[in-house]
Amino acid sequence: MDSARAHDLRTVLSGDDIARASRRIAHEIVEKAKGASDLVILGIPTRGVYLAQRIAAAISEIEGVEVPVGALDITLYRDDLRLQPPRALEPTSIPSGGIDGKTVVLVDDVLYSGRTIRAALDALNDVGRPAAVRLAVLVDRGHRELPIRPDYVGKNIPTSSSEQVFVRLSELDGTDSVEIADGVGA
Amino acid sequence: MRHLLSAGELDRDAALLILDTAAEMSALSDRSVKKLPTLRGRTVVNLFFEDSTRTRISFELAAKRLSADVINFAAKGSSVSKGESLKDTALTLEAMGADAVVIRHWDSGAPYRLAHANWIGGSVINAGDGTHEHPTQALLDAYTMRKHLRDGQGALEGVRVGIVGDVLHSRVARSNVLLLQTLGAEVTLVAPPTLLPIGIEQWPCEVSYHIDEVLPKVDAIMMLRVQSERMKDAYFPTAREYSRLYGLGGDRMRLLPEHAIVMHPGPMNRGMEISAEVADSAQAVMVEQVANGVSVRMAVLYLLLGGAKELSQ
Fold first, then answer.
1. Side-by-side strand order, sheet with A103-111
2. Global ipTM
3. What is the pLDDT of residue B84?
4. Domain residues for A31?
5. What is the per-residue pLDDT across B186-213, written as a single tens digit (0 to 9) for each?
6. pLDDT at B79 over 80
7. What is the pLDDT of residues B207-228, one digit of tens each?
8. Which residue of B has its CA nearest to A122?
9. In this complex, how many residue pairs, one in chain A and one in chain B, have their CB atoms less than 8 Å apart?
10. How far A127 CA lies from chain B's nearest CA (Å)?
11. Would the pLDDT of B312 be above 50?
């Protein structure tokens, strides 16, 4: 991220855009699930967890009920573990009610190859048996390598695979934004 | 990190990475499916020259929970009892494609030899060598202390730990002293002078001959097993005298602060270094130490084997 120089960056979503997108996703989730009962929102670390918390808070506001929210670390299920040094694990927290029979909404910041989601589905399988699994992402940048499709998208952003997408969230980065950097020649 | 040979070679960051990883691994034991796919297709050999059912099954369970294939190689009744050298055993394991060798050996330094002699390409994990070190035991002890002390916040800086018993022959004591010092805890060893090694004054810890003076000041007390095989060597006059002077009974336990925990690496000799009353008390965490051992060993196996192989020299 540090290697990207300021003039290479182009903002595609502002803080307000992100707030509107996550509220809209919350509405869509409630609409499709016909309410907020039996919903479990699970974020994929790192930034997916904060997005999951925001979406869960928005659903609580809309429906007036608490929505269980947690985190699902997928490191131990990755298919590229052997390609790089061992990674540190991020916390996994499954809400106390579990996921059996629930509708689980996975939340991630950027959907790209789809391999992270493949790993998340494997991880979920070991945690329990949800009634259904949905996928919400802030940014879908295309270039899927697996047959995986999101149910809720903040914004579709066509990119070239040489570009990089940076998501910043205030909980971690002090500000909310999505930016794209040209990777060519960098 | 390619091998785990000594608790002393772990710096603070490496030790904390293992302990934090173990905390994530421990969540697995609450799940219905206690299995992760992480080490699928990797082979872990438990090479045990000395009997140790507990440590072996702990490593075996840890490797199996990460989906590694496990081969148990016990020296008894194997080619070793027919006179095979460590080198030839190692070459055999290498030919079979072992990715990691967990070794328990009666000779101090055997894991080091195995790791540095270029006999095998995989990782070597020391599961106890002679009177030298037992790093995963020290890690699981530190993990247990992190969970119980300081409200579970995980910091061991300034925590006071007493280690009582046969320090002379104890690889557990040595590994604990080295790791706890790295993590900022203060260790006091308690033993009769005959059971302290020469050069103890250079260890980064305090030494006391009187357990009653140490007990009121510690946050955790670790009782070491009296190794009955050493009894005949006259390190102390009688078992009863040792038990009276250094054993932890109910009356002595009441000298401990209320929040303090009682630890023991196992197997315990009830009535010898620890009384049944203490072993079954609420302050005793021995059963939990066993569970934590599996999490810590999973963390070590993941961090050594989970990523890309480092290029060997």
1. A69-71, A39-43, A103-111, A132-140, A152-156
2. 0.86
3. 83
4. 14-82+90-159
5. 999 999 999 999 999 999 999 999 999 9
6. no
7. 999 999 999 999 999 999 988 7
8. B37
9. 48
10. 6
11. no
* Contacting B residues, span 53-82, partner chain A, CB-CB under 8 Å: 66
Helix, coil or strand: residue A41: strand
Please indicate, yes or no, if residue A165 is contained in any of the structural domains. no
What DSSP designation does A38 have? Answer: T
Q: Nearest Cα to B161, choosing from B143, B182, B177?
A: B177
Chain B positions in Cβ-Cβ contact with residue A97 (cut-off 8 Å): none
User: Looking at the domain assignment, is residue A51 inside a domain?
Assistant: yes
- Residue A178 inside a domain? The answer is no
Q: Hey, are the CB atoms on A77 and B35 less than 8 Å from each other? A: no
Q: Which of A81, A90, A118 has the highest number of chain B CBs within 10 A, making it the mutation to test binding with B?
A: A81
DSSP B107-159: STTHHHHHHHSSS-SSEEEEEEETTTB-HHHHHHHHHHHHHHSGGGT---TT-
Task: Please tell me whether residue A156 adopts helix, strand or coil conformation.
Answer: strand
Give how many domains chain A has, as a whole number.
1
- For the structural domain made of B135-286, what CATH number should be given? 3.40.50.1370
Q: Does B32 touch chain A (CB under 8 A)?
A: yes
What digits encode the pLDDT tens for the residues B145-155?
A: 999 998 888 88
CATH at A153: 3.40.50.2020
Contacts of B33 in chain A (CB under 8 A): 125-127
Contact A85 B308 (CB under 8 A): yes
B7-132+291-305, CATH topology level: Rossmann fold (3.40.50)
- Closest CB to B38: pick one of A81, A88, A128: A81
Phi (first) and psi of residue B230, to 5 degrees: -95, -10
Asked if the bond preceding B237 is cis, omega within 30° of 0, the reply is no
Could you give the CA distance from residue B149 to residue B128 in angstroms, rounded to a whole number? 26
Q: How far apart are the first and last CA of chain A?
A: 12
Mutate to test the interface with B, among A126, A127, A129 (most CBs of B within 10 A): A126
**Domain locations along chain B:** 7-132+291-305, 135-286
- Chain A positions touching B38 (Cβ under 8 A) are 76-77, 81
Does A84 touch chain B if contact means CB atoms closer than 8 Å? Answer: yes
